[in-house]
């Protein structure tokens, strides 16, 4: 409208200024100088065009900024409430190939002296408590070495099986609930959930760098407290939980071995995996298939089949949902699994 008005006014000015003068064609050698009216028209058109271009540029920038801010606000990190690994907008990207991807802020693949000290001190303390428990048991059997050895072996084997079950429950819980801000367990939760974005990262870690986080819940204070409560009259309890906590810490290293090829691991590791004493590569690979709803046990994997066939974890998720309305990450990843779980169909179909 402004451009049309300017043209009309300019044309009227030109016509009114020359209405009494007859039109005479210019000579060939004459230069026609633009009149004042045409200069005004040109200036007005240029100003209007610049204004329109600036308005369009401003609108485009505003729209682009809005989209950028919206995407940034939508993306979640391991610290956000409602973070779900494996979903779009989770803030985690899968690294192609066998690349490493550290997702926990402040974490590193470098082994530190503090990590070595924590792991060494934990294992040394647990070994002392276990040795003292065996000594107490030897005293209780009146110095009967064969009986002491048999009871100790049975206690250790039962503790190993219980540790496999415990690793599954721990793995299931940190995979499906909580985030990086969860008290005490926040770093472990973030590490386990972030592990699904780049499973090979664990193979780049040294031993102490890999297991030190688990020394917090399963460390020396835990074992010492249990032993104190049990008392010297129950040495089997101390032995059981010493080996149990040791196994839970070691589960992360056994877990690492399941992500490595046979050429990358020592022969003894391949033998242990082949015998089913430690978690194997194929069984654990089944866990890394979305929605990550089974095969949680990572010590030996002995309990996985029973837990998955019974639907134990789906039943747990259903009960938790009924209590507080919180869905597991597996349920969020798979609407069909969610529907089946809420219908009471807990058994996993392989």
Task: From the structure above, extract its key features.
350 residues; mainly alpha; 0% strand; globular
Number of helices, counting only DSSP H or I runs of 4 residues or more: 14
Structural class: mainly alpha
- Estimate the mean pLDDT confidence: 81
- Characterize the biggest β-sheet: none
Assign a percent range to the helix content: 55-70%
Low-confidence stretches: 1-34, 70-74
* Beta-strand fraction estimate: under 5%
Q: How many E strands? A: 0
How would you describe the overall organization of this protein?
With 350 residues, the protein is an all-alpha fold. The protein contains 14 helices and no strands. 31% of the residues are buried. The model is unreliable at 1-34 and 70-74 (pLDDT under 50).
Write a short abstract of this structure.
This protein has 350 residues and is mainly α. It has 14 helices and no strands. Helix 1 packs antiparallel against helix 2, helix 3 packs parallel to helix 7 and helix 4 crosses helix 8.
Topology readout:
Layout: H1 2-17, H2 36-74, H3 113-140, H4 145-176, H5 186-195, H6 207-211, H7 220-230, H8 235-258, H9 267-275, H10 281-287, H11 304-310, H12 312-324, H13 329-333, H14 335-342
């Amino acid at each position: 409208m402004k451009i049309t008005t300017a043209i009309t006014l300019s044309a009227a000015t030109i016509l009114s200024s020359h209405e009494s003068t007859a039109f005479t064609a210019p000579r060939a050698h004459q230069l026609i100088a633009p009149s004042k009216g045409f200069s005004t028209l040109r200036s007005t058109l240029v100003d209007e065009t610049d204004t329109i271009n600036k308005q369009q540029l401003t609108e485009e920038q505003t729209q682009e900024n809005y989209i950028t801010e919206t995407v940034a606000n939508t993306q979640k990190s391991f610290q956000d409430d409602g973070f779900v690994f494996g979903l779009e907008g989770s803030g985690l990207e899968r690294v192609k190939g066998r690349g490493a991807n550290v997702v926990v802020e402040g974490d590193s693949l470098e082994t530190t002296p503090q990590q070595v000290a924590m792991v060494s001190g934990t294992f040394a303390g647990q070994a002392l408590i276990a040795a003292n428990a065996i000594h107490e048991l030897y005293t209780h059997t009146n110095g009967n070495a064969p009986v002491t050895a048999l009871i100790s072996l049975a206690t250790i084997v039962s503790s190993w099986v219980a540790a496999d079950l415990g690793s599954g429950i721990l793995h299931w819980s940190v995979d499906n609930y909580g985030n990086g801000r969860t008290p005490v367990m926040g770093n472990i939760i973030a590490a386990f959930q972030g592990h699904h974005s780049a499973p090979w990262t664990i193979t780049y870690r040294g031993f102490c760098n890999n297991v030190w986080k688990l020394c917090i819940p399963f460390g020396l204070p835990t074992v010492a407290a249990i032993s104190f409560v049990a008392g010297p009259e129950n040495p089997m309890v101390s032995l059981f939980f010493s080996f149990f906590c040791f196994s839970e810490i070691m589960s992360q290293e056994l877990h690492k071995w399941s992500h490595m090829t046979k050429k990358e691991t020592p022969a003894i590791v391949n033998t242990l995996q082949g015998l089913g004493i430690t978690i194997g590569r194929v069984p654990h690979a089944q866990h890394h298939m979305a929605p990550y709803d089974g095969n949680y046990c990572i010590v030996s994997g002995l309990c996985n089949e029973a837990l998955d066939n019974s639907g134990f974890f789906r039943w747990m998720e259903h009960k938790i949902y009924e209590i507080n309305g919180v869905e597991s990450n597996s349920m969020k990843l798979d609407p069909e699994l969610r529907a089946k779980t809420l219908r009471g169909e807990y058994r996993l179909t392989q």
